[in-house]
Amino acid sequence: MKTKIVEFCEDKKEFQERLQEALQEFVENQEKVKIYYSVTCDPANSDMIYSALIVHI
Asked: Which residues of 20-57 are buried (b: 16+ CB within 10 A; e: fewer)?
């Protein structure tokens, strides 16, 4: 099973770019994936934190 992790990002645009890069290999090979993502709020400074796990199915 192939997986990729998109690490925590505080910037939504940066997160989207990293997610797209991580998905590129799967898209090129026409593989099906499930994407599990989370958006949380850092209580210390109210920043939004984005992360994702991509799992090949």
From this structure: eebbeebeeeeeebeeeeeeeeeeeeeeeebbbebeee
Q: Say how far apart CA 36 and CA 55 lie, in whole Å.
A: 8
Is pTM beyond 0.85? Reply is no
Dist CA 57 CA 45 (whole Å): 37
Question: What is the distance between the alpha carbons of residues 28 and 47, in angstroms, rounded to a whole number?
Answer: 34
Q: Which pLDDT does position 10 carry in this prediction?
A: 81
Q: Which residue has the tokens 């690490």?
A: 7
DSSP state of 8: E
